[in-house]
Amino acid sequence: MNEDAARAEAPGPAGRNWAGNLAYRAQQLHEPRSLEELRDVVVREPRLRALGSRHSFTDVADGDALVSLDRMPGDIEVDADAGTVRLPAGTRYGTLAAALHERGWAVHNLASLPHISVAGAVATGTHGSGDRSGTLATAVRGLELVTADGEVVGVGAAQAAGDGAVARQLPDVDLDAAVVGLGALGVVTAVTLAIEPTFDVAQEVYPGVPWDDALADLDAVTGSADSVSLFTDWRSGAIGQVWRKSRVVAGWEPRTSLLGVPRSTVELHPLEDVDPRSTTAQLGVPGPWHERLSHFRMEHTPSHGQELQTEYLVPREHAVDAIGALRRLGPRLAGALLVSEVRTMAGDQQWLSGAYGGPTVGFHFTWRLDVDAVAALLPHVEEALGPFSPRPHWAKLFTVSGAGSPTALRAAYPRFDDFRALAARLDPQGRFHNAFLERHGLVG
Known about the structure:
Blueprint: H1 3-8, E1 29-30, H2 35-44, E2 49-51, E3 66-68, E4 77-79, E5 84-88, H3 93-102, E6 105-106, H4 118-123, E7 140-146, E8 152-156, E9 168-169, H5 175-178, E10 187-194, E11 196-197, E12 200-210, H6 211-216, H7 218-222, E13 227-232, E14 238-247, E15 257-258, E16 261-262, E17 287-288, E18 307-315, H8 319-333, E19 337-345, E20 360-368, H9 371-385, E21 391-392, H10 406-412, H11 416-426, H12 435-439
Parallel strand pairs: 1-3, 2-3, 8-9
Antiparallel strand pairs: 4-5, 5-10, 6-11, 7-8, 7-10, 12-14, 12-17, 13-14, 13-19, 15-16, 18-20, 18-21, 19-20
Helix pairs in contact: 8-9
């Protein structure tokens, strides 16, 4: 983990990331206002990285020069016949969700935070939750991007790029290869997502569900709603809180208990010492999907604010054993851990997705803002999860000597070398390379 060194440095024009642990070292921050300006930036800068909402805890988005798409023009365009929406890459999920809901549409899932950009979230494999729900990237039907030579190209169901430029389709590039692209293939300018008719969701919270009861039939717990989160400190004999998010359909009724534990009658934050006003509505009261599927409200500061994050994803069949390993490690984590969250997701075929190949369980750690303490603990977390082939979340903290080593990543991702070859073909000069990609062996 090299982010501790970055924290000590004075930031460049891009400042720091959301958590403050990373000072962007780039000395150039471009903010183009048109596609032509962006294309000019791409061909002028020897090495360039796209910067999203700054919610990455790693240096995945840092580089010699950065480009922000926040000032790029573009509208959110719904194609009702195709069941898709095309949007500028820098659009935040909260902005997209409100626009879609107003028009009677929805996306299938959301991450914990609605403040993150669509392009950044899908490029790093950010997932959301639900046994039957794929990661956010599985909604992608097309990408438009500017490649290393300044050309505007499309992958999948990409549309005309605007500004007088037309995206040339790349029929020989698999969409599954490009979506979780880590910025290595080009600067994504627009994303096309699958949409569905809007729906209501109800959220219920159950505090203190015994671990032994939950593990006796974990599938029944995680499958009891469309999205289920288990918040824990890994030390107690009970899960701190179980959050259940259910689509409201004909015949739906709120549950009063889960494994004998009554539903909370007051709203709760995953952290005991934090006011729940920043969280989405609970108590089993139905409401619009975008006001329930995320854990936190768009209008409030995300999560705890002063924190670091780590996440590892493992095949679902190892869930119970992996939980046992982390519970045994729990006392060692106590001083640095704020809360941990267990979530599940359906499998996919996207080359660098943490859910590649089958159903997956994610183990998320929200740490105190103590870089040294977290750096000391990550090897132990990775050792505990080692027997279960952990895949680290690309935008959250992990080690380069363990789960993040090129050797470990190659073993965890069957299409790892295929991705390297694709990146080399689309970017032969390494224009989109950076220290992160090189350190973890993602580019040659």
